[in-house]
Amino acid sequence: MERSGTTAGLRGIHAAGPGVAWACGTNGTVLRTEDGGYEWQQCAMPPGAEKLDFRGIWAWDANTAIVMSSGTGDLSRLYKTTDGCASWKLVLKNRGKNGFWDAVIFDGDKAATSDGWLLGDPVRHEFQLRHTVDGGKNWRLERGKAPQASPGAQGVFAASNSALVLLTNDLGVRAFPAFGSGGSAGAFFYEPGTLMVCIDACNEVISPPRSGDWVRAEVPLAGQNDSSGVFSADFRDANHGVAVGGDYRKSNESAGTAAWSADDGKTWTAAEKMPHGFRSAVEWDADAKAWIAVGTNGSDISYDDGKTWVPLDNGNWNALSLPWVVGPGGRIAKLDPHRLPK
C-alpha cells in the first residue's frame, strides 16, 4: 500500500514509464508520481472540475497527460497538461445532452503526434467514437463508422478506462480499437472486420471501417442487466486476449467474471476456474508471464491465458496499470513481483 494523500475514489491509473504514473478520481482529483510511488503529488485541479468524476487518464511522461471525466452531457470532458499538471487546458467537452464518455486510449510515444480514440455510450443507437491524430489537440467524431447498438439497454462501463483496447495485426503493428460492452442486451466484444494498419511509416492511417463492418462476438460473462457485462479487455499479442467483468452489484459472485480468446477476439470461452468475484480491470504482466485482474473484492492471477485463476488479495480495487492499482478512498498499491504465487 502507498500513501496517496487523498480520500477520493480513484478510477483511473496509467503507468507512463520508469517511476512515472498518473492517477485520477472523484471531485476533480489528479495525482502524479515521479519516484516510483514514494511520493504522490496532488495536481492542480483542472478548471471547473470540482464536481467532475475523472474515470480515465493517459500520460506520455512526467509532464504530459490527458484526463477524462465521465458523466451525462457536458460532464464528459477532456483536459490536457504539458507542464507536469501545474495547469490544465480544456480540449474537448461533450456537447450532446445524452452523451456519456467511457474510455480514452492512445498509440504512440510522442504526445504531439499520437493517435488517440475516445469511446462513448450509444447516442441514437450508435456508439460514439472520436479520433485524434495530434495527441488530443483536435478530435473528430467518426459518424457512421462506429457499430450500432443492440435494441434495449447497451453501453460501455466507465469503471477502469480499460473497456477500450488497441488490437494489433500479425506483424505487431497497432491497429483499430476494439471494445467490450454490457447491459440488458448481453455481454459483447466489438472489433472492426478489417483492422487498420500503419502505412507510409505510420504518417497516414487507413480510415476506420463503416458501422456495418464491425464484428460483434458474444462473451460468456454475466450479463443481461444494466450492471453487468464486459468491463475490461486486454491482449498480450495479436491472438490471445482476456475479458473480465460480471455484475458490479454482486461483487462476491464468481460466475461469469472472466473469458479468454485465442483468435483475436472473434470467439470467447468462459474460464474454467473464475476469479473470486466481479472484476473491473485486467492486464497482461509480461514480466510475470501472467494475467492479473482486479475488482471490488480483490484480485486474481492466471498463468494459463485466462483459463484458470488464483486469488491474490481481498482488497477493494477499481483500475489497474501495472505495477499500480487504485481503488476507493484514495487506495493505491504497487505490485510486489516477489510475492506472486507460483
The CATH superfamily is known as: YVTN repeat-like/Quinoprotein amine dehydrogenase
Overall number of strands: 29
CATH topology: Methylamine Dehydrogenase, Chain H
Tell me the helix content. Answer: under 10%
Proportion of beta-strand residues: 35-45%
Q: In CATH's first tier, which class applies? A: Mainly Beta
Report the sheet with the most strands, covering strand number, pairing sense and barrel closure.
8 strands, antiparallel
The coarse silhouette is: globular
Number of domains: 1
The chain-level structural class is mainly beta
Descriptive overview:
By secondary structure, the chain is mainly beta. The chain has a single domain, classed as Methylamine Dehydrogenase, Chain H. 0% of the residues lie in helices and 43% in strands. Strands 13, 14, 15, 18, 19, 20, 21 and 22 form an 8-stranded antiparallel beta sheet that branches. Strands 1-2-3-4 form a 4-stranded antiparallel beta sheet, with no helix packed on it. A hairpin with a 2-residue loop joins strand 1 (10-17) and strand 2 (20-25). The chain is globular. 52% of the residues are buried. The model is unreliable at 196-206 (pLDDT under 50).
